[in-house]
Amino acid sequence: MEELMEILTGIRPDVDFENCTTLIDDKILDSFDIISIITELNSEMDVTVPADQIIPENFNSAKALWAMVEKLQDE
Amino acid sequence: MSFVSLGFLLFLLILFVLYYALPRRFQWVLLLAGSLVFYAFASPKYLIYIAVTALSTWFAGKLIHDAYAARDAYIKDTPDITKEDKKACKEQAKKKGRRILVCCLILNLGILAVCKYTDFAIGTINSLFGTDIAFLRFALPMGISFYTFQSMGYIIDVSRGKYQAELNPAKFALFVTFFPQLVQGPISRFDQLSQTLYSEHEFEAQKITQGAWRAMWGFFKKMVVADRLVPVVTGIACNPDKYAGGYVLALVFFYTIQLYADFTGGIDITIGVAKMFGVDLAENFDRPFFSKNITEFWRRWHITMGTWFKDYIFYPVSVSKWMLKVSKWSRAKLGPQLGKRVPVYLSTILVWLATGIWHGASWNFVVWGLLNCLVIIISQELEPLYAKFHEKCAFSNTKGWDVFQMFRTFWLMAFLRVLDVYRNVPLTFRMVPTIFSSKGWSEMFSGGMLKFGLEERDYIIVAVAIVIFLIVGILQGKKPVAEQLAEKPLVPRYLIVWVLIIVILVFGAYGIGFDATQFIYNQF
Asked: What Rg value do the Cα atoms of chain A yield, rounded?
């Protein structure tokens, strides 16, 4: 989770990833950020996020993102 | 069979009576039979195209289902399976699924490409190399872009494991051929449409009545407004030497109104008719001309096509291995702020190129798509400036400013769309600037606009209809108008409905000698 938080704050230092649970719903993250997060996940954590996983439920909070990463690592 | 014909109304009446008279378990079978009859009326030779798409996609879905079922059974029946074996088994099934998917995509997108784009390719080669290759003039089956995209969305979702494949070929054929959506969409998703398409439906008077109202509203838009404007739009567009200047501005305006009334009207008929059979189709519009910018407009216009491109082109391309490499490279070379834009803008350009080509096999659509893309990218880049402007200028947060933004979006979209009507890129770019010349303006206002077969009363009808569109649009902001109408007391409710029927009958553009025009999006 720490590694993920580093990636997220590296991309958007202005966002409170610890507490925010509406990153997509409140349009805090845009498509640039989403693609950047996916790129970083791939290069830093060796996680490939398939297109069908790009849904608001997976990107609304750092916690949801971490759950998706764990699931993808498990597969 | 056109929606705007007595034949269609008769077909609908027979199907409707049988649908609720037959035992409920046969309802979906009747819908399939009705859909095939409807399609056969367009031309029996087209049936083979849609049959190939339906059967090949069903078969591909079944093969993927079998591969995934074998994977699940192997994992389940091997209690001491290691994590690595499990992963390898899943990977093998995934690869098999992908191979089947690719074959299905090549076959069906190939049919679409051959039917729709062969002559475009030949024409381009001829003009580039001065050759004289004869056009092949393949038949363009009705709704091919719509049913192909719908079927391809299904097979991609099945291969992704989003939902189970439909194993009954007849049921799947109904998903592909369901008649109300064959003319011009919407592009439905299997998991949403199948929920009501195969269910047994009781005779629900309220739902059926609301469906009929919605369809009537669509007929009003199509027959009273869209078809009324055909002579003036074609009259100006087909005679560019004669009609320039002010006439071009009139063309820009009237074509936008015609397109709006035609496409949203057609979708109203589609959704209304489907509702009469208990089937819920996805909404394709959300009051698009209330949008304050072009990005918002495209979220609210032809929604099912936009989400299709987003889900099946934009995101898969953005996160493809190749694009991830580009993204990493651009962020390293150009810095995080500029670098992160590269993959998103590359995918956006690809999506708009595809959107343009999807609309038609000619350069005007390609240019139209790319111009939309350019405006979206410029708007995106100007976003920080807008934010500063909103901070500093208090009036930018008023209703008046909102209305100005809607007005601006309307005209921006209208000017981009004029490429549709001239169907010739150099001609369009030559004609639009003439608006700023003195050409045609005085002639226009001294009877020039009455040369196209439209009388003053026709323009008054269109003006009144535009006001009605605006009022209905504002009302729709609260909840669907049909629901609001259903809540009204009996007398005003039916007064409104009867006025609508009378208006369609009295002011509708139809009758002896009048040829009901095809829906504009039907040709896409």
From this structure: 11
Of A36, A43, A49, the CB nearest to B340: A36
The residues on B that touch A, with CB distances below 8 Å, are 87, 90, 157, 160, 162, 311, 315-316, 318-319, 323-324, 327-328, 331, 336, 340-341, 343-344
Total residue count of chain B as it appears in this document: 524
pLDDT digits (tens, 9 = 90+) for B149-188: 999 999 999 999 999 999 999 999 999 999 999 888 899 9
> Chain A interface residues facing chain B, Cβ-Cβ under 8 Å?
10-11, 31-33, 35-36, 38-39, 42-43, 48-52, 54, 75
Report the distance separating Cα B342 and Cα B369, nearest Å: 19
What domains appear along chain A, each with residue ranges and CATH number? Answer: 2-74 (1.10.1200.10)
Contact B475, B190 (CB under 8 A): no
User: CA B332 → CA A49, B319, B327, distances in Å?
Assistant: 21, 17, 9
Judged by CB atoms closer than 8 Å, whether chains meet at B316 and A39 is answered as no
Note the pLDDT of residue B387.
Answer: 82
SS3 B252: helix
Instruction: Write out the DSSP string of B347-366.
Output: HHHHHHHHHHHHH-SSHHHH
Of the candidates B90, B316, B324, the beta carbon closest to that of A39 is on B324
Distance (Å) of CA A56 to CA A62, B158, B429, B437, B478:
12, 21, 41, 50, 25
Q: Which of B319, B326, B380 to mutate to test the interface with A (most CBs of A within 10 A)?
A: B319
Structure tokens at B353: 């190129």
The total number of residues written for chain A in this structure? 75
User: What gap in Å lies between CA B33 and CA B174, rounded to an integer?
Assistant: 9
Kindly determine whether residue B87 and residue A75, on different chains, have CB atoms separated by under 8 Å.
yes
Asked casually if ipTM beats, i.e. exceeds, 0.85, the reply is no
pLDDT tens digits for range B7-45 = 999 999 999 999 999 999 999 999 999 999 999 987 788
CA–CA separation, B524 and B182 (whole Å): 12
Helix (H, G, I), strand (E, B), or coil: what is residue B138?
A: coil
Identify whether the C-beta of residue A39 lies closer than 8 Å to the C-beta of residue B327.
yes
Closest-CA residue to B507 (of B220, B282, B279): B220
In sequence order, the 6+-apart residues with CB closer than 8 A to the CB of B466 are B257
